[in-house]
Amino acid sequence: MSIYEKVLGDDFYRLHPMLQKRYAIEEGKPFKASGTMKTIKGGPAWLYPIFKLGVHWKLLFPERGSAIPFTIKNEAMMGLHGEQQVHWERVFYFGSKKRYFNALMSMDSNRSVIKDYLGEPALIYSDLAFDVSIDGAITIHSLHQRLVLGKIELPLPKILHGLATISERYDEMKDVYRIHVSVRNPLIGPIFSYEGEFVQDA
Prior knowledge:
10% of the residues lie in helices and 54% in strands. The chain is built from three helices and twelve strands; from the N terminus they run ααβαβββββββββββ. The chain is mainly beta.
């Protein structure tokens, strides 16, 4: 049973069947897909140096645009202490440039949240809460966040949070997965977003 099945419990079976397939990620059964981002947008121009620096952590990138090809790979594995983990590799292709938005997730059973370590090496930590809508779509919200400095993790004040909302649904008319991601800061407003569609690789 995947960490997403565990955190959602019975709600997992309210997901669209194709989203159930998408999130039933277990060891030896990676999910691989490819598609196109309709748009990738950013926030204020003065954030550009931060996004450029984020390239080194495979976390952020400064490029923006439309009709951007991308691939996604979700692979389950066991952590050093025997915990279930899922590695997320998201690759965006800007011409000859490859930009990443990677993460490593596991489950906190006591709090019923997914633990999300963003970047490689991890730079930001976030708790994630999962919800299923009446039409079988999934929405993911980021909660408490921390700055990761090696083995030290420092709580981030809310004014510095990058609050993410991720929505995924399955479009039966086109037989594609649709995704929309937005990241907002309480003070600045929108700082990063992308919207697109993808299909599972054969």
